[in-house]
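Discussion board: Methods & Data

I've been asked by a reviewer to show the raw model output for two of the constructs in my manuscript, not just the figures. I'm not sure how much to include, so I'm pasting the format here to get opinions. Each protein appears as its amino acid sequence followed by a line of discrete structure tokens. Is this the kind of thing reviewers expect to see in a supplement, or should I convert it first? Here is construct A:
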Amino acid sequence: MRAAIRSRAFQSPTQQRWVTSSPTVSVSGTTTPLPANALNQKPKSPFYFDTGYSLFAKRPSRPFPPPFFSPPSGSFSDPLSTHNRSRDRRTYVNGEFIRGITNGDDAVLVGENFIGANDGVGAWAAREKGHAALWSRLILHFWALEAERDASVTDAAATSSEPDPVEYLQKAYEQTIAATSSPNEWNGTTTACAALLHYSTNEPRIPLLYVTNLGDSQCLVMRPKNQSLIYKTSEQWHWFDCPRQLGTNSPDTPIANAVMDKVIIEENDVVLAMSDGVVDNLWEHEVLANVVDSIRKWESGAGGEASGDRAGGAAGGMLFVAEELMKAARIVAEDPYAESPFMERAVEEGLAMEGGSSCDAESQTLPWVSLNQNHTGATTSWYDPGLPRQERRETTSKNPWKNH
């Protein structure tokens, strides 16, 4: 997912585009659906995310089980038939439309002031009553709902307090446990990563980013005008390939293990929320170079029709940037001989492994506002998707972010 911070004084119309390809599963768009009665249908913040997301799943998502999904009945005479809802393919919990969308075992949510990427642990698919996609989606749904209900987020008049995303996540975790307990028992675990856009309480108002992470998904904040990386989350592991996670039999909890950082940002900074399907296949310098290059292409007229001024990736450019980043990650993921961050970490652990990681991948992108001091040392000259593998391996050995 990618997003940019904008002032509402210059808000452009919302763009929505869905793209699917066969036989693989890929989807892209600008925002995920919201019910008509959502509290933050139009958040009252003076700033908003200009968003785009692109998803790729290694296999189709499993349908949610009842009572979260009401499948079409075979006939009107079926016992306990749900034919009255057979045309409604949406999923529900506690009478609420479930926010976000599912991507394989993962879940993403993209809104004007909240974006999130939860990475469900796919191994639960082999277990009885296992459904990681349900867990990742429900936690993200309840997390977003808690943010909607908090007056400090949804009410511009509540300037004396600030949001508490870790508390929101703790409540979401507890509500997910309740929703997946008897008689609707389903097991699963998921990482959690989200960014909430708020603003300072003093004049002049400046945008603030509240980034919360538990596990190995990642949030990056980039400043394309300086070609620099100004913030990244830190991965949390129990051991290699076993990140911290929320859910069945896991000792981790949001209140004890989630980390929240508050980042000052500025207009046209780019925020990325990504699952390990991206970060396992692209080094940070490659992500930075890809984003900067895609924004320049968009500004020069590439990437499709714009709804307004293209400067800084506005007017639909974040969707294009997200799609280009996903394409780059997918090239590596599907190359059995590729050099990749995942392969590098595996070798450091003494495991014989090569090629990219085939995890489900999500990229969300957003441009924004920040007053952070520029972070030095970033470079944009390393990534070229047209390079032969050997050349890419040689350039990655000089990766300036490797020990960042």
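Construct B, same format:
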Amino acid sequence: MKIIESTQLAEDRCNLETYGVPQSTVSTVVKNKEKWIAMQDKGNLRKPRAVSNERLEKAMKLFVQQARENNLPLSGIMIREKAKDFACQLGFTEFKGSAGWLSKFAKRQNLAFKKLCGESASVDTNMSDDFKQKTLPDLVRGYDPKDIYNANETASFYKCLPDKTYTMQSEACHGGKYSKQRITVLCATNMDGSDKLPLLVIDKLININLQFFPPNATSVLQPLDLGIIKNLKHYYRYSLVKRRLDEMEQKKDFSDITVLDAIKYMSRNWAADVKPSTIANCFAKAGFVCPDADQQWNEDIQEDLPTITDDMMAHLSEGVSFSAYCNVDDDLTTAELMSDDDILEFVTEPKSVNREDVEDTEDDPHQPLEVTSSMVRNTLGAMNNILAATENVPAEMFGIYYALEQFLQQKY
């Protein structure tokens, strides 16, 4: 009927590209349009058949969607074999997984078998250059650098210490034994680095003009991927190594690193260590240049990052450099892939959850700290003594201390 409507609207041509059918078929439909119109008026046109195995359809849709999101290659044969496997487990013994089923499934799910794209594939330099030169200038025009934000997620093996570097790198791509020691962090900052939003938390914003980067080009267009996240992870790894070396120096037992520890360290690194100049330079490198702003990417800017010598690293793990340790989770995915059992469980009838069956993801969880007035008083007194004994403390630090003291005393 769409073909007939097009001819009635005097469209100049009905062709293969428009309707996905041979030209001869288009011509035949147009020739017999009176018959098709009469059948539609009588309600004799067949309606699309409902999917016979809804659970299988849902399972395969989830399987394909997951593969797409993680840039995993899929062929028609792989999809058919997986469908037959799922059908067997779901009890659909008559399902054959034929080429005809694949064709209909692909049509229902709008699948096209083509070259893999995404961040794991090769970067389309022509498309990324075109975005930088033609699209991006229009997007940033009329905005101040302080009003242009970039957000991106990253994953980290938060418990990993140097002695596990090479072991955990082998698990980086799609989970595995150490996948439960992973946390996902959302970073967001503005173009000049003056507003680094709290990690994982985005305050309520209004009048947002949200734009997405072209596919398969974020590695060259995403400011956070061009050094900001790597800078954050460098400081986080440095904090963990310093903590372990301090425990060795003080002859303390090694303490486990919890999710709460990771959040505290990363939040402090993000707020205090990642510099606005680093952020601004990464935005400029990605092509974010406001017309009225005097800002260019300077590849000669090299931040003096703290590091750990090989001799010091040898106390923690023989043969692992600090740079290698910092790169341990470069290829870590931000989400766990669902197994076949997970997919099948998801598409079957929901069942009640037994709390005893829920796996605790934290071996030694932090118990809520019971804060007392005497604890607050003693801690504040110790902080006051440290400030008094420290030379060249900036005046504003005392103001911060007094504000904190007043807040905690009112609270407790």
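Answer (T.O., handling editor elsewhere):
This is acceptable in a supplement if you add a one-line summary per construct. For B, something like: Residues 228-249 form the longest helix (22 residues).
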